[in-house]
Amino acid sequence: MSQDYNPNDLKVNKNNYFNVAYKILLYLKYCYENGTDVNPDVLSPDNIGISEKQFVLTLQMLLEDGYIKGVSLKSTIQGPTIICNIQNTYATSSGLQYLVENSMMTKAYKVSKEIRDWIPLYK
């Protein structure tokens, strides 16, 4: 177990899967509803406030669950996974429905009201 791990962090962790997935799906919903392209500077681990690894894993889970499409992830032999075509990412109808109906997403919304702080166009 990592020395940095603290079980108490789980109670207040704003970077859990549901909060991160919520931020990603909400931004993709925003792009869809406003007819704008995904901005890689906005949809980035630094902008969301998470590590590159967590960002890649979250994208992978969203892809596997059928909630997003357009982006692809390429594994490399010697290093990290490469994110390809992030600007082509979009939320599927399943992803949009999940955003609205999932109770964990509702909880994530309550925790993630700072969404306007990390999406410059969302103000």
Commentary on this structure:
- A hairpin with a 7-residue loop joins strand 2 and strand 3 (82-84).
- The protein has helices spanning 9-12, 17-34, 45-48, 52-64, 93-101, 103-111, 115-118; strands spanning 68-69, 72-74, 82-84, 90-91.
- The strands form two sheets. The chain has a two-stranded antiparallel ribbon. Strands 2-3 form a two-stranded antiparallel ribbon.
- 50% of the residues lie in helices and 8% in strands.
- With 123 residues, it is mainly alpha-helical.
- It has a single domain, classed as Orthogonal Bundle (Arc Repressor Mutant, subunit A).
- Helix 2 packs across helix 6 (103-111).
- The radius of gyration is 14 Å and the shape is globular.
Keywords for this entry:
123 residues, mainly alpha, Arc Repressor Mutant, subunit A, two-stranded antiparallel sheet
Give the number of domains: 1
The SSE string, one letter per element, is HHHHEEEEHHH
Q: Remind me, CATH topology?
A: Arc Repressor Mutant, subunit A
What is the CATH superfamily label?
Winged helix-like DNA-binding domain superfamily/Winged helix DNA-binding domain
Largest sheet at a glance? 2 strands, antiparallel
Give the name of the CATH architecture. Answer: Orthogonal Bundle
**Strand segment tally:** 4
What is the helix content?
A: 40-55%
Basic shape: globular
The CATH class is identified as Mainly Alpha
Question: With helices defined by DSSP (H or I, 4 residues minimum), what is the helix count?
Answer: 7
Strand line-up of the largest beta sheet: 1-4
Query: What structural class is derived from the secondary structure elements?
Result: mainly alpha
Please give the radius of gyration in angstroms.
14 Å
Low-confidence stretches: none
Through-space gap between termini: 40 Å
